DNA sequence: GTCTCTG
DNA sequence: CAGAGACAACGCAGG
DNA sequence: CCTGCG
Protein backbone atom coordinates (compact mmCIF):
# COMPACT_ATOMS: atom_id res chain seq x y z
CA UNK A 1 0.00 0.00 0.00
CA UNK A 2 1.22 3.48 -0.89
CA UNK A 3 0.05 6.84 0.41
CA UNK A 4 1.43 9.92 -1.33
CA UNK A 5 4.14 7.70 -2.76
CA UNK A 6 5.23 6.37 0.64
CA UNK A 7 5.20 2.62 1.24
CA UNK A 8 2.94 1.73 4.13
CA UNK A 9 3.69 -1.57 5.83
CA UNK A 10 1.49 -3.48 8.28
CA UNK A 11 -1.38 -0.97 8.11
CA UNK A 12 -3.59 -3.11 10.32
CA UNK A 13 -1.10 -3.49 13.15
CA UNK A 14 -2.63 -2.17 16.37
CA UNK A 15 -0.47 0.58 17.88
CA UNK A 16 -2.98 1.77 20.50
CA UNK A 17 -4.64 -1.33 21.97
CA UNK A 18 -6.97 0.55 24.30
CA UNK A 19 -8.63 2.55 21.52
CA UNK A 20 -7.98 -0.18 18.95
CA UNK A 21 -6.17 2.30 16.73
CA UNK A 22 -4.05 0.86 13.95
CA UNK A 23 -0.91 2.02 12.24
CA UNK A 24 -3.07 3.16 9.33
CA UNK A 25 -5.16 5.22 11.78
CA UNK A 26 -1.95 6.93 12.92
CA UNK A 27 -0.77 7.55 9.36
CA UNK A 28 -4.18 8.87 8.34
CA UNK A 29 -4.21 11.15 11.37
CA UNK A 30 -0.88 12.69 10.38
CA UNK A 31 -2.01 12.92 6.76
CA UNK A 32 -5.32 14.58 7.61
CA UNK A 33 -3.70 16.99 10.06
CA UNK A 34 -0.58 17.67 8.00
CA UNK A 35 -1.85 21.18 7.32
CA UNK A 36 -1.91 21.82 11.07
CA UNK A 37 1.27 20.05 12.17
CA UNK A 38 3.64 20.85 9.28
CA UNK A 39 4.03 24.56 10.10
CA UNK A 40 5.24 23.52 13.57
CA UNK A 41 7.64 20.88 12.22
CA UNK A 42 9.17 22.72 9.28
CA UNK A 43 12.78 23.77 9.58
CA UNK A 44 13.37 22.41 13.09
CA UNK A 45 15.63 19.60 14.30
CA UNK A 46 13.59 16.75 15.69
CA UNK A 47 13.79 14.05 18.28
CA UNK A 48 11.54 11.13 17.36
CA UNK A 49 9.89 8.75 19.79
CA UNK A 50 9.05 5.52 18.05
CA UNK A 51 6.89 2.56 19.03
CA UNK A 52 7.06 0.11 16.10
CA UNK A 53 5.18 -2.56 18.07
CA UNK A 54 2.65 -0.26 19.72
CA UNK A 55 2.59 1.98 22.78
CA UNK A 56 2.15 -1.03 25.07
CA UNK A 57 5.59 -2.30 24.00
CA UNK A 58 9.07 -0.93 24.45
CA UNK A 59 9.71 2.24 22.46
CA UNK A 60 12.79 4.37 21.93
CA UNK A 61 13.96 7.91 21.34
CA UNK A 62 15.85 8.70 18.17
CA UNK A 63 17.98 11.81 17.73
CA UNK A 64 20.10 10.68 14.77
CA UNK A 65 18.60 9.94 11.37
CA UNK A 66 18.98 6.27 10.49
CA UNK A 67 21.39 5.52 7.64
CA UNK A 68 18.59 3.85 5.70
CA UNK A 69 16.25 6.86 5.76
CA UNK A 70 15.50 7.89 2.15
CA UNK A 71 17.04 10.89 0.43
CA UNK A 72 13.85 12.96 0.50
CA UNK A 73 14.28 13.29 4.26
CA UNK A 74 16.25 16.40 5.17
CA UNK A 75 18.79 16.24 7.95
CA UNK A 76 20.89 18.83 9.76
CA UNK A 77 24.10 18.54 11.71
CA UNK A 78 23.81 19.92 15.23
CA UNK A 79 26.66 20.41 17.67
CA UNK A 80 26.52 18.60 20.98
CA UNK A 81 28.66 18.96 24.09
CA UNK A 82 31.05 16.37 22.73
CA UNK A 83 30.58 15.97 18.99
CA UNK A 84 27.53 16.18 16.83
CA UNK A 85 24.18 14.65 15.94
CA UNK A 86 22.54 14.38 12.54
CA UNK A 87 18.95 15.39 13.23
CA UNK A 88 15.90 14.66 11.13
CA UNK A 89 14.01 17.66 9.78
CA UNK A 90 10.42 17.15 8.61
CA UNK A 91 9.89 19.62 5.79
CA UNK A 92 7.28 17.81 3.72
CA UNK A 93 4.33 15.44 3.80
CA UNK A 94 6.30 12.47 2.48
CA UNK A 95 8.73 12.72 5.38
CA UNK A 96 5.87 12.95 7.86
CA UNK A 97 4.23 9.82 6.44
CA UNK A 98 7.52 7.93 6.16
CA UNK A 99 8.32 8.64 9.80
CA UNK A 100 4.81 7.63 10.84
CA UNK A 101 5.27 4.34 8.98
CA UNK A 102 8.50 3.92 10.95
CA UNK A 103 6.40 3.82 14.08
CA UNK A 104 7.02 7.41 15.10
CA UNK A 105 4.31 8.42 17.54
CA UNK A 106 5.85 11.53 19.10
CA UNK A 107 7.60 14.42 17.34
CA UNK A 108 9.70 16.63 19.63
CA UNK A 109 10.98 19.90 18.16
CA UNK A 110 13.77 22.36 18.91
CA UNK A 111 12.95 25.95 19.85
CA UNK A 112 15.22 27.21 17.06
CA UNK A 113 15.23 26.71 13.29
CA UNK A 114 18.03 25.22 11.22
CA UNK A 115 19.08 28.48 9.56
CA UNK A 116 19.88 29.97 12.98
CA UNK A 117 20.32 27.01 15.29
CA UNK A 118 21.75 28.99 18.19
CA UNK A 119 18.99 31.62 18.35
CA UNK A 120 15.59 30.34 19.47
CA UNK A 121 12.48 31.87 17.94
CA UNK A 122 10.24 30.32 20.57
CA UNK A 123 9.93 30.67 24.32
CA UNK A 124 8.06 28.05 26.31
CA UNK A 125 6.67 28.10 29.81
CA UNK A 126 6.46 24.35 30.30
CA UNK A 127 4.06 23.86 33.21
CA UNK A 128 4.52 20.50 34.89
CA UNK A 129 2.00 19.68 37.63
CA UNK A 130 3.06 17.62 40.60
CA UNK A 131 0.07 15.35 40.20
CA UNK A 132 -3.71 15.35 40.02
CA UNK A 133 -5.18 18.81 40.26
CA UNK A 134 -5.71 20.03 36.74
CA UNK A 135 -7.65 22.98 38.12
CA UNK A 136 -4.62 24.52 39.77
CA UNK A 137 -2.72 23.99 36.54
CA UNK A 138 -5.40 25.93 34.68
CA UNK A 139 -5.20 28.62 37.31
CA UNK A 140 -1.42 28.79 36.89
CA UNK A 141 -1.77 29.12 33.13
CA UNK A 142 -4.25 31.98 33.58
CA UNK A 143 -2.13 33.98 36.01
CA UNK A 144 0.98 33.54 33.88
CA UNK A 145 -0.95 34.66 30.85
CA UNK A 146 -2.09 37.83 32.64
CA UNK A 147 1.40 38.44 33.96
CA UNK A 148 2.92 38.22 30.48
CA UNK A 149 0.07 40.24 29.01
CA UNK A 150 0.96 43.16 31.30
CA UNK A 151 4.46 43.00 29.87
CA UNK A 152 3.06 43.17 26.36
CA UNK A 153 3.69 39.51 25.64
CA UNK A 154 0.83 37.58 24.09
CA UNK A 155 1.23 33.86 24.58
CA UNK A 156 -0.48 30.79 23.19
CA UNK A 157 -1.53 27.60 24.84
CA UNK A 158 -1.10 23.93 24.01
CA UNK A 159 -2.05 20.82 25.93
CA UNK A 160 1.00 18.60 26.24
CA UNK A 161 -1.19 15.53 25.83
CA UNK A 162 0.24 13.96 28.96
CA UNK A 163 -0.12 15.91 32.20
CA UNK A 164 0.94 19.49 31.62
CA UNK A 165 0.35 22.61 29.60
CA UNK A 166 2.70 24.58 27.37
CA UNK A 167 2.38 28.32 27.28
CA UNK A 168 4.53 29.73 24.49
CA UNK A 169 5.26 32.69 22.26
CA UNK A 170 7.48 33.54 19.35
CA UNK A 171 10.15 36.21 19.29
CA UNK A 172 12.80 37.67 17.04
CA UNK A 173 15.94 35.54 16.93
CA UNK A 174 18.29 37.83 18.78
CA UNK A 175 19.03 35.98 22.00
CA UNK A 176 21.16 32.89 22.59
CA UNK A 177 19.61 29.92 24.34
CA UNK A 178 21.46 30.84 27.53
CA UNK A 179 20.00 34.35 27.45
CA UNK A 180 16.53 33.10 26.61
CA UNK A 181 16.56 30.55 29.42
CA UNK A 182 17.81 33.12 31.95
CA UNK A 183 15.05 35.51 30.94
CA UNK A 184 12.40 32.83 31.49
CA UNK A 185 14.00 31.95 34.82
CA UNK A 186 13.80 35.59 35.92
CA UNK A 187 10.17 35.84 34.86
CA UNK A 188 9.43 32.62 36.71
CA UNK A 189 11.09 33.99 39.85
CA UNK A 190 8.99 37.13 39.58
CA UNK A 191 5.88 34.97 39.25
CA UNK A 192 6.83 32.90 42.27
CA UNK A 193 7.06 36.15 44.24
CA UNK A 194 3.44 36.82 43.30
CA UNK A 195 2.11 33.26 43.64
CA UNK A 196 4.41 31.46 46.09
CA UNK A 197 1.86 28.77 46.93
CA UNK A 198 1.10 27.90 43.32
CA UNK A 199 4.40 27.91 41.42
CA UNK A 200 7.94 26.64 41.88
CA UNK A 201 11.23 26.25 40.02
CA UNK A 202 12.73 23.81 42.53
CA UNK A 203 14.73 21.21 40.63
CA UNK A 204 14.22 18.46 43.21
CA UNK A 205 10.77 16.94 43.11
CA UNK A 206 10.83 16.52 46.87
CA UNK A 207 11.22 20.27 47.27
CA UNK A 208 8.26 21.22 45.08
CA UNK A 209 5.61 20.73 47.73
CA UNK A 210 2.85 19.85 45.27
CA UNK A 211 3.25 23.11 43.35
CA UNK A 212 3.42 23.55 39.61
CA UNK A 213 6.93 23.37 38.23
CA UNK A 214 7.80 26.02 35.66
CA UNK A 215 10.30 23.94 33.69
CA UNK A 216 12.36 26.89 32.47
CA UNK A 217 15.38 24.71 31.51
CA UNK A 218 13.34 23.54 28.49
CA UNK A 219 14.57 26.80 26.94
CA UNK A 220 18.18 25.59 26.89
CA UNK A 221 20.23 24.64 23.86
CA UNK A 222 19.51 21.22 22.39
CA UNK A 223 16.28 20.75 24.32
CA UNK A 224 12.96 19.88 22.72
CA UNK A 225 9.27 20.21 23.44
CA UNK A 226 6.41 18.11 22.16
CA UNK A 227 5.27 19.45 18.79
CA UNK A 228 1.71 20.82 18.64
CA UNK A 229 -0.55 18.20 17.01
CA UNK A 230 1.88 15.39 17.82
CA UNK A 231 0.38 12.18 19.11
CA UNK A 232 1.55 11.02 22.53
CA UNK A 233 2.44 7.46 23.47
CA UNK A 234 -0.48 7.14 25.87
CA UNK A 235 -2.96 4.29 25.93
CA UNK A 236 -5.74 6.57 24.65
CA UNK A 237 -3.71 8.13 21.83
CA UNK A 238 -3.83 11.64 23.26
CA UNK A 239 -2.69 14.60 21.18
CA UNK A 240 -0.78 17.74 22.10
CA UNK A 241 -3.39 20.27 21.03
CA UNK A 242 -3.33 24.05 20.64
CA UNK A 243 -6.34 25.49 22.47
CA UNK A 244 -7.82 28.93 22.90
CA UNK A 245 -7.97 30.60 26.29
CA UNK A 246 -11.76 30.26 26.21
CA UNK A 247 -11.37 26.54 25.56
CA UNK A 248 -9.10 26.13 28.57
CA UNK A 249 -11.98 26.65 30.98
CA UNK A 250 -13.91 23.74 29.50
CA UNK A 251 -11.27 21.01 29.36
CA UNK A 252 -10.75 18.49 32.12
CA UNK A 253 -7.23 17.23 31.47
CA UNK A 254 -4.20 17.61 29.26
CA UNK A 255 -5.40 14.47 27.48
CA UNK A 256 -8.73 16.01 26.50
CA UNK A 257 -8.04 15.51 22.79
CA UNK A 258 -7.09 12.19 21.22
CA UNK A 259 -7.25 10.12 18.04
CA UNK A 260 -10.90 9.41 18.68
CA UNK A 261 -12.21 12.96 19.13
CA UNK A 262 -9.73 15.37 17.53
CA UNK A 263 -11.59 15.44 14.22
CA UNK A 264 -14.86 16.48 15.85
CA UNK A 265 -13.30 19.31 17.84
CA UNK A 266 -14.78 22.73 17.28
CA UNK A 267 -12.42 24.85 15.19
CA UNK A 268 -11.03 28.12 16.50
C1' DG B 1 11.00 -0.87 11.58
C1' DT B 2 15.35 -1.87 10.16
C1' DC B 3 20.12 -2.78 10.58
C1' DT B 4 24.01 -5.26 12.59
C1' DC B 5 26.26 -8.44 15.41
C1' DT B 6 26.61 -13.14 17.33
C1' DG B 7 26.23 -18.10 17.45
C1' DC C 1 19.69 -18.82 9.76
C1' DA C 2 17.32 -16.88 14.05
C1' DG C 3 17.61 -14.08 17.86
C1' DA C 4 19.23 -10.10 20.50
C1' DG C 5 20.52 -5.47 20.79
C1' DA C 6 20.54 -0.73 19.28
C1' DC C 7 18.03 3.11 18.08
C1' DA C 8 19.39 9.36 23.72
C1' DA C 9 22.10 11.48 24.97
C1' DC C 10 21.97 16.05 27.00
C1' DG C 11 22.18 20.22 29.25
C1' DC C 12 21.57 22.18 33.48
C1' DA C 13 20.89 22.64 38.76
C1' DG C 14 22.56 21.63 42.94
C1' DG C 15 25.37 19.38 46.33
C1' DC D 1 33.04 14.91 40.61
C1' DC D 2 28.18 12.95 41.26
C1' DT D 3 22.87 12.52 40.94
C1' DG D 4 18.25 14.27 39.62
C1' DC D 5 15.39 16.04 36.26
C1' DG D 6 12.60 16.32 31.96
MN1 LIG E 1 5.79 19.46 30.39
MN1 LIG F 1 8.96 19.60 31.56
UniProtKB/TrEMBL annotation:
It comes from the Bacteria. Residues 23-265 form the DNA ligase D polymerase domain. InterPro entries: LigD_pol_dom, NHEJ_LigD. NCBIfam families: ligD_pol (TIGR02778). This is DNA ligase D polymerase domain-containing protein. It comes from Galbibacter marinus.
Amino acid sequence: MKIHGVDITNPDKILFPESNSSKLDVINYYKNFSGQIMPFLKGRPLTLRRFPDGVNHQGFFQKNASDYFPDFIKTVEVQTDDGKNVSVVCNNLKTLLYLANQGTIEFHTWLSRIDKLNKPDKVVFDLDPASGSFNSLKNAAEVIREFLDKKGIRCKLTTSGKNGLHLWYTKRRTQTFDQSREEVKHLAEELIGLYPDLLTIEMRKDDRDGKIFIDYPRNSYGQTTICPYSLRATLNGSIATPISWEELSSIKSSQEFNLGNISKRRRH
